[in-house]
């Protein structure tokens, strides 16, 4: 909304944010801090999947940025594959209809992410029409991942071409395990693990374990302290 201080003039806003923040500079500052300083992708979506507001982190994401170059008004389908967007739009509508928060776990833009949908309350008590969408990277081994709705339609990026076993090996490499340790963990021979590592290098166009680990970390297969 126009009365909420914007962290950057580059952030577009096609409609008002919750009126509850109108004229309240303190809440405006809190809004900016939470949406701009946390590193999360933050969107405000309506029932039709139209992006009514986005933060700078979202604007910097390549698929979103590319879509912004084509139009200032975006829908989920403009920066996601149709099947991925359809599932997320259904979740947006479910959150609005039920008036409840929905945490989701799934791959988007080549990274496993935790996405939370929160209906934005209205001042007059009418049913909410907007959802606050926050999205942060999530490691597959986080204990609370099982409590979220597991999305079926995903965009895994470069990971998509890997087999389940290759993803396992890639994850263990990123955790710093040696070839022998990986073989022991998976109950496979060292030779088999080496074969998987070579296949990973060929598919991902990298030449060493460090580069493989970096891909695993960027993709959210593991997290680093």
What does the model show?
The protein has 225 residues and is of the alpha+beta class. It is 41% helix and 16% strand. The chain has 9 helices and 6 strands. It has helices spanning 25-36, 56-60, 62-70, 76-79, 82-98, 164-174, 179-186, 190-204, 209-219, and strands spanning 41-46, 51-54, 102-108, 111-119, 130-137, 149-150. The chain has a 6-stranded mixed sheet with strand order 2-1-5-4-3-6. A hairpin with a 2-residue loop joins strand 3 (102-108) and strand 4. The longest helix is centred in the middle third of the chain and has 17 residues, at 82-98. The radius of gyration is 20 Å and the shape is elongated. Mean pLDDT is 82; it is low at 1-15.
Layout of strands and helices, then pairs:
Blueprint: H1 25-36, E1 41-46, E2 51-54, H2 56-60, H3 62-70, H4 76-79, H5 82-98, E3 102-108, E4 111-119, E5 130-137, E6 149-150, H6 164-174, H7 179-186, H8 190-204, H9 209-219
Parallel strand pairs: 3-6
Antiparallel strand pairs: 1-2, 1-5, 3-4, 4-5
Helix pairs in contact: 6-8, 6-9, 7-8
Percent in strands: 15-25%
> Which regions are unreliable across 5 or more consecutive residues at pLDDT < 50?
1-15
Tally of DSSP helical segments:
9
Find the structural class using helix and strand composition. alpha+beta
Describe what is shown at a glance.
The chain has 225 residues and is of the alpha+beta class.
Tag the structure with descriptive keywords.
6-stranded mixed β-sheet; alpha+beta; 225 residues; elongated
């Amino acid at each position: 909304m126009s009365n909420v201080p914007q962290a950057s003039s580059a952030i577009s806003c096609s409609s008002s944010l919750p009126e509850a923040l109108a004229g309240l500079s303190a809440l405006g500052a809190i809004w900016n801090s939470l949406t701009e300083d946390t590193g999360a992708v933050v969107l405000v979506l309506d029932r039709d999947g139209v992006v009514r507001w986005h933060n700078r982190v979202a604007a910097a994401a390549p698929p979103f940025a590319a879509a912004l170059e084509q139009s200032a008004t975006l829908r989920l389908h403009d920066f996601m594959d149709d099947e991925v967007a359809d599932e997320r739009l259904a979740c947006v509508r479910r959150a609005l209809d039920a008036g409840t928060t929905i945490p989701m776990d799934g791959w988007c833009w080549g990274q496993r992410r935790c996405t939370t949908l929160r209906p934005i309350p209205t001042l007059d008590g009418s049913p909410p029409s907007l959802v606050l969408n926050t999205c942060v990277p999530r490691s597959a081994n986080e204990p609370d991942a099982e409590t979220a709705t597991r999305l079926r339609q995903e965009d895994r990026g470069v990971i998509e071409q890997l087999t389940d076993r290759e993803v396992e090996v890639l994850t263990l490499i990123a955790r710093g395990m040696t070839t022998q340790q990986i073989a022991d963990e998976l109950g496979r021979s060292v030779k088999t693990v080496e074969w998987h590592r070579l296949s990973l290098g060929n598919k991902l166009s990298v030449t060493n374990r460090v580069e493989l680990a970096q891909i695993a970390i960027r993709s959210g297969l593991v997290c680093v302290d």
